[in-house]
Amino acid sequence: MEDFVRKIYSSFVMGDMLVNYLLDEKERMTMQLIPLGMEDKVTEEDKVLRGDCLVQAKIIGDEYPGAYGNGITMRNSGTVDHMVFDSQETKRTEENGRENINVVTYLKDERGYSYIHELSYTKGDHAIKVNTTFVNGSDKDASLEFLSSFSLGDITPFEKGDAYNTIDIYRIRSKWSYEGRLVHDPIEDLQLETSWAFWHPEVLKYGQKGSMPVKGFFPFGAAYDKKNNVTWAANLAVESSWEMEFYRRDSALCFGGGLADRDFGHWFKTIKPGESFKSPDALLTVCQDCVDTACQRLTSYAKRFLLNGPECEKELPVMFNEYCTTWGLPSHENVMKIIDAVKDHGLKYFVVDCGWFVEEGKHWGDGMGDYIPSDKLFPKGIKHTADMIKEAGLKPGIWFEIDNVGHDAHVYNEEDMLLKKDGITLSTGGRRFFDMKNPKVREYLDKKVIGQLKEYGFEYMKMDYNDTIGIGCDGAESLGEGLRLDREASVNYVRHIKEELPDLILENCASGGHKLEPLMMSICQMASFSDAHECENIPVVALGLHRTILPAQSQIWAVIRKDDTIKRIAYTMANTFLGRMCLSGDVLELSDDQWAKIDEGIAFYKEIAPIIKDGFTFFDEHKGPSDRYLTGYNAMIRVKTDVEGSKPEKGSVSTEAFVCIHIFNECKGNEIRVKLPECCPRNIKNVYKGTDINVRIEGDTLITKATEDMEVVAIHLVS
Fold it and tell me: Which of 62, 524, 526, 710 could form a disulfide with 78 if both were Cys (CB 3.0 to 4.6 A apart)?
């Protein structure tokens, strides 16, 4: 067994993080990330350290990992054995007036291959961006079957030996209408303890296959050192199949991720001489705090993309989407009736959802792809409807599903425009998929999507995506590469839409929340948080998503029904306080009392919108084990900050905050005590509720007593 002495080759301070590059005598380089100020606590005492490379890759023809690793991991393969450190350079530039540091590390291989590991940090951020590029400098083709975006070593460096009973692994699970469930396991339960021989690798690999990157798991992972209160966390910005991997063969846990490899995602790619291939970006952070803080440090990176968005987005305006009113059958007539009902209630956007093209007697999903506005539903043309929406003082929006087609659409049979698998047009339950690389498809979408947006004057587009390609498609040397190329082309087409219509407001939707990853969120103003349109578990999903996307980008449904009680309306409206407010439902049949409670909720939302936009979330979750049959309660404290995702410094007190407490079943009569963080103001300015529930503050604790099951209370606090 090898055990190498390592030395620090270089160190970089990046905000409150310290990045160390460690080099051993075999010229292998490990990347170590620790909170700044904890340098003196780093120890290698009693540890077995075999070295771990900051770039992980596997080239077809090289040895697969030994020690029973083949088939479960491609880390530390024969390809990595060939890599040695070459050089490192640092570049300092400015980005929007802020200093940017780029650290570029070069590894070489005697066969002519080289690897470029690039790390970038912008002053004021809480996360760093990392990616890896493979360059084929040989005179022969090289086929990659694995390339990491990032690889962190030395978790945890703050404990002697093997750090037993010290590390927990966090992941975020996701399924349709139940997105964002945080789960964690001790490494002992995951069998990530080392063996007596420190020989064969212990591996936890997970990810997602297909074109819905947030279905099963979010592309996220974290390791928490519970003895030293340190969390390492990472996100991948990826629209195709991906994987993350916790790996251990010595005293230090390693954590890496990137595109799904050949074993996991049927991916390999041939790089010709003189060509290169770059991995997806990864976002990394470390902090001396819990996983909730680490998550918000990652999500805060997205704020840069919102700053250049449309001016109208800065106040997080309230919107209406008619889907849960017409259920896929919008028409000029019913849209005008809805507009008349909602136009005086403080809304800014009105979205015409799916079905504006549906043929009589058909379902909207069957005909999508042709996108010919129905002359029966819109006898004067859909532009007339968009104009009437504008006359009511609202920005008109419209729904498209740009990638997929339904079985009744004419383009369903245009097989030269569609993806194939095994030479056969790829079909899934009545849907097919445009080949987004195909110039003919792009020309078609330019006419059907961009052309109609321009012609009819729509200012908002909801982009849906309601099926998955699966493991991959034809069009490249592997199914996984076919998928990656198609998803890359799709993302580039969305960028093309933005170039053509720079003020267009884009909503990212994929069966609700199946594309809530950093890449797509970087080019959209907001996202549909879920398809849990009117479920009681909305606040559970919406709060969980504070760990994955910015609340300012999380569009949450408030579907009001004519039979809803005032208690239910308050519960529904308060759900949207956890993100962006989107109304829908039976707005043509509501009473004055029901509208009064809705209007009160809209006014409360507008009051707290600056806190939603720039704040830090403290979680106080006490619900039972089920996300469907809810018991207990959940509380959220959102504190206003100057910088999104920045946890207020100790001793500081914010100017305002709000608390939202959703009370579930089996809680009636219980006293609920929510401890307010030190930075939270203590004066109650406003309360929104639908029952007789009362609140008071004693010292650092907000106290309420549940008067009924399934009720809510939201409190705006000021200093």
Answer: 62
